[in-house]
Amino acid sequence: MTVAAKPRAACLIGWPAAHSRSPLIHHHWLHELGIAGGYTIEAVPPEELADFVTHLDRHGFVGANVTIPHKERVLELTEPDARARAVGAANTLWYEDRILRATNTDVEGFIGNLDAAAPGWDRTDEALVLGSGGSARAVVFGLLERGIGCVHVVNRTAARAQALADQFGDRVVAEGWDRVGALLPRAGLFVNTTSLGMHGQPPLELDVDLLSPHAVVADLVYVPLETRLLGAARSRGLRTADGLGMLLHQAVRGFELWFHRRPQVTPELRALVEADLTRA
C-alpha cells in the first residue's frame, strides 16, 4: 500500500493579511493548471515571525509570500538573493537544497507589467519616481537593471530620497518635491510608488500635461483600479500601467518556485480580481 503524497501548499505571511488577493490569484492558477495544491493566509504577529519562518516546512508549506510588516525582517531569517538584498526587502520565500531562500518579485512584477502594458517603454533615458519606500526601491532596482540611464527620485522628506540615491549610485538622483514640474517634461516614464490617490488617502496633485506625449505613466495603487493620475494620463492619450497589473505579474515567479509550473497572467485572471476588488 502506498501513501499518497501530500499536496504542496504555500501561504501568505502578514500582520494583518486578510485583505490580500493573493489566495484568489494562486487558487485560480492551481485550478487552471490542474495542480492539487493550496495557498492560505497566515496572520503572524511580529513576535512570532522568527519561529514561524524558521520552521515553515514543519507548518506544511513549501514556500510563502511575505507582506507588511515583515518584508525587511525576513532577510535575516533566510538566504536572500542579490535582488532582495539590494531592495532591502523580500516578498517570496522558497526551499532550495533544504535552504529557505528569499527574493523580491516586486521587481519583475513591475517590469513585467510595464512590458505587457507599454511595450518599448524602456527606450527612454530618464525616469521620474515618486516615493522612496520599499516599493520605490524595487522600482528603481528594476529600472537600473533594464538600463535606464537616469532615475530621478522625489520624496517629501529629502533625506529619504537621498538615502535611496546613495544606495543605488550615480544613476539615481534625489530631487526635492518642488522639482517635479521641471522634471516631468524630461521623463519618458513617471512612476507613483506612494499611497497618494489610494482610497482614503489624499489625491496626487500632478499636472500630466507637462509630460511628453510619448511618456508612460505607472501607478502602483490598485484601489481604485483607475486612479486620478491614470485617468488623466489616459485622457491625454498616454500609455499607462496600473497597480493591479503589477500585483498579478509579481505573483508569477512565486507560484513557479512552489508548484514547478509557470502560470500566465490572462485577461480572465485580471477580470476575476477586478470583480473581487469591485465587490470590496
Structure description:
This protein has ten helices and twelve strands. It is of the alpha/beta class and 280 residues long. α4 packs across α5 (134-146) and α4 packs across α9.
Q: Which features does this protein show?
A:
10 helices; 6-stranded parallel beta sheet; 6-stranded mixed beta sheet
Order of secondary-structure elements = EHEHEEHEEHEHEHEHEEHEHH
Rg calc: 19 Å
Q: How is the largest sheet built, in terms of strand order?
A: 2-1-3-5-6-4
Given the C-alpha coordinates, what overall shape results? globular
Our estimate of the beta-strand percent is: 15-25%
Task: State mean pLDDT (0 to 100 scale).
Answer: 94
By secondary-structure content and strand pairing, the structural class works out as alpha/beta
How are the SSEs placed, and which strands pair?
Elements: E1 8-14, H1 22-33, E2 37-43, H2 46-54, E3 63-66, E4 79-80, H3 82-87, E5 92-96, E6 99-103, H4 106-117, E7 126-130, H5 134-146, E8 150-154, H6 158-168, E9 172-175, H7 180-183, E10 189-192, E11 216-219, H8 228-235, E12 239-241, H9 243-259, H10 267-279
Parallel strand pairs: 1-2, 1-3, 4-6, 7-8, 7-10, 8-9, 10-11, 11-12
Antiparallel strand pairs: 3-5, 5-6
How would you concisely characterize the structure shown here?
The chain has 280 residues and is of the alpha/beta class.
